[in-house]
Amino acid sequence: MVTLYSTHCSSSSKAAASxxxxxxxxxxxxxxxxxxxxxxxxxxxTPICNAIRMQDGAVAASPSKIENETPLKKLKDGILSVRxxxxxxxxxxxxxxxxxxxxSITVVGASGDLAKKKIFPALFALYYEGFLPEHFTIFGYARxxxxxxxxxxxxxxxxxxxxxxxxxCGEKMEEFLERCFYHSGQYDSQENFxxxxxxxxxxxxxxxxxxxxxxxxPPNIFINxxxxxxxxxxxxxxxxxxxxxxxxxRDCESSAALTRSLKQYLKEDQIFRIDHYLGKELxxxxxxxxxxxxxxxxxxxxxxxxxVQFIFSEDFGTxxxxxxxxxxxxxxxxxxxHLLQILALFAMETPVSLDxxxxxxxKVKVLRSMRPLQLDDVVVGxxxxxxxxxxxYPGYTDDKTVPKDSLTPTFAAAALFIDNxxxxxxxxxxxxGKALHTRxxxxxxxxxxxxxxxxxxxxxxxxxxxxxxxxxxxxxxxxIYLKINNKVPGLGMRLDAxxxxxxxxxxxxxxxxxxxxxxxxxxIEGERRLFIRSDELDxxxxxxxxxxxxxxxxxxxxxxxxxxxxxxxxxxYLAARYKVRWGDLA
Length: 586
Prior knowledge:
Family: Belongs to the glucose-6-phosphate dehydrogenase family.
Largest sheet: 9 strands, mixed
Pathway: Carbohydrate degradation; pentose phosphate pathway; D-ribulose 5-phosphate from D-glucose 6-phosphate (oxidative stage): step 1/3
Catalytic activity: D-glucose 6-phosphate + NADP(+) = 6-phospho-D-glucono-1,5-lactone + NADPH + H(+)
GO molecular function, one term: NADP binding
EC number: 1.1.1.49
């Protein structure tokens, strides 16, 4: 593959050259070159330079006559992509040695629950479906003492096969486990990571090495692990990428400090901040639903939409994770990342293209257009013990890992606003909580009432229940449905609210991949569209940090609600203030 790189960068990289030039670089001395050798083939780049002019950081053109076109056969649709110079070395070298390249995936924190329940199963699913490279190796790294065999036994207990492809399941599992290895070491030891590096090189066996590190560890040891991996175990010739799990700090200051520390050892394009909700099928479908269906885009504004609701609920409590959760709370754990990221995708303007940077630029614009959250627009709650059906469910402070006087909210509802031309005055309501009556995650778009509706008398006092509503159910039982008003068959004039329903399990027989599968594959392929950029993170924290500090400084006491209920009554008053009824109450 031949990839041309623009020297035109975003506003955060203003040191780049003119945005009307194309730069070609020799990777060993950073000098412009007119030709490049790919294996045994030599390609002249001079005619390409002469053929291409760039405008505003984006260009596509067909190359001029090239001495040998064989290395170009994989150019996608004949388009030359323009990317930053700092990524140039990886792309040229990786593609010119593609048959001889290998990917080493190191799961740092391999003995933890996330690795066992999500990461290793996702990697196996990718292998099972044929999405991993031909040559790959998986290493587990943790402080626990373990052999390769013990790691494989641990991992094998969590692996499952696709429902529609079970013929060779056992064989595929054995093949996958044979590629899994383990190295025990401290997270802050360069010596231990150097030992890991030696093992990785043995398995890479002279192939062109690319390395991916997944940090499945607590945030307080991120930097130590990144420092050691970067200095002692990064790829000398290929790319090195690091996936970082949330939380990304607790507020603006700690998040910025974490980013600065990471950037001491990594470039921004090496950091993949993962939010697994962005990998969920229905969340990724948001832009498809909106931008490829003519009926929705004209309605996607304040003119037709009355409010938008983002609802997240779990039907279980902290259950042993209280110590971790108490340090963050529901706002930091769910609202500031999962729900806010979905909101940004929902509300963004049409991006220039599906390129990662174009999409992330539009998300940042939305976040920067939002008002900082006010305390008056927030309701917090905490679940208490409740007995139902002869079973007693413990309250949050009954968890032995939680302080008895904890004021950490396990429930929060908030009203947010976007001050731009499209969404001015439309309330975006968020609600998230633990130990509620059901487990679900959904987006609800409530449209305005029909002006001068001829059938108002048929609805009586239940006008809100007759509101058209688009519901995108992210989990469980993924579905998209539209509530419409319809006449009930018969001689009378009785109206009924009915659903036009797309239930994924009924429409698509294929099993929906787990979010971690999609995100891991994107990280391996260098696709950053579903990962969070540092300026996105800054903008997100700037919305929530003031109210979080106010809640803690004023020691606001959360409203109690029974385990298994619909949450505190204050959430209903908050919605009513903006003449909204929570859609999940019907």
